[in-house]
Amino acid sequence: MIVTIGNTKGGVGKTTIAVNIAIARAISGRDVWLVDGDRQGTAQTSISIRSQAGHAPGIACATYSEGATLRTQVQQQASKFDDVIIDAGGRDSTALRAALVLSDVLLVPFQPRSFDVWALSDIASLVDEARSVRDGLRAYAVLNCADPGEASTDNAEAAAEVAQVPQFEYLPTPLRRRKAFSNAAGAGLSVLEIKPQDQKASSELNALISNIFGY
Predict the structure, then answer these.
(1) For 118-176, how does the pLDDT look when each residue is reduced to its tens digit (9 = 90+)?
(2) How far apart are CA 208 and CA 116, in angstroms?
(3) Most CB contacts within 10 A, which of 27, 109, 150, 199?
(4) Does domain 2-213 have CATH number 3.40.50.300?
(5) Which candidate, 163, 143, 208, 199, places its Cα nearest to that of 7?
(6) Distance CA 130, CA 120 (A)
(7) Residue 23 parent element (H or E)
(8) Tens digits of per-residue pLDDT, 58-81?
(9) Domain ranges of the chain
(10) Which uninterrupted H or E stretch holds 35?
(11) Rounded-to-integer distance, Cα 136 and Cα 153, Å
(12) Alpha helix stretches (DSSP H) within 59-193
């Protein structure tokens, strides 16, 4: 399966989620390729840190920030892997547009802030374009850095706003504001690996993955 983690708005935690998902899938026995589609190369840096530290399983990773190159490489290499996770940069780029046409799933993280919710309309138009040339693209929106409280008004209001954007299915499996996610990704790890393990973060990641991959 090819899954793109993308949003035209920056600062929503795409790379942190992409790294955590890629490693979690590898831990479960999948052969995973993480594609960094951002010129900043943060996902590539995270996996390089992982490799240098000798953590297993190893994760294949490559950076293609230009759409034509990303499209060609993914088309040629995707069949060698069980899962391809594409971390697209936080803007409307050729890499993001190429990734959308290639992907089975688009996961759009957003934070419970007005600007993040408003920005969903921008990537919604890109979803429409991608679906016009590729059938079957599933587009999900998920709250990232959600307020910790189960009864958070901000979380509920943000979720309600997403329901007004028909291009997306809202996933009721938010990732809450926990240091474990960013700390893990910065060390080239997933929250499933860090010690001591944050059980709540691990449960949230596993719930999100179950929704994306359908089991």
Answers:
(1) 778 889 999 999 999 988 999 999 999 887 766 567 778 877 888 888 999 999 999 99
(2) 20
(3) 109
(4) yes
(5) 143
(6) 15
(7) helix 14-27
(8) 999 999 999 999 999 999 999 999
(9) 2-213
(10) strand 32-37
(11) 33
(12) 67-77, 94-102, 114-133, 153-162, 179-186
Average pLDDT rounded to a whole number, residues 40-55:
96
Q: Provide Rg for the chain, Cα atoms.
A: 16
Which two tokens mark 135? 């059938």
The closest alpha carbon to 139, from 96, 202, 178, belongs to: 96
Which DSSP state fits 152?
Answer: -
Looking at the chain, the whole-number percentage of residues with pLDDT higher than 90 is: 73
pLDDT-derived band at 114 (thresholds 50, 70, 90) equals low
Q: What is the pTM of this model?
A: 0.93
Give the pLDDT of residue 150.
63
* Pairing outcome for strands 105-110 and 32-37: unpaired
More confident residue, 8 or 77: 77
Using alpha carbons only, give the angle 205, 61, 132 rounded to the nearest 5 degrees: 75
CA 48/CA 34 separation, integer angstroms? 12
Place of tokens 């089975």: 104
Tokens of 177: 């504001």
HSE-up of residue 19 (Cα within 13 Å, Cβ side): 26
Structure tokens of 22?
Answer: 């890629």
Q: Which alpha helices (H) appear in 149-198, and where do they start and end?
A: 153-162, 179-186
- How high is the mean pLDDT of the chain? 91
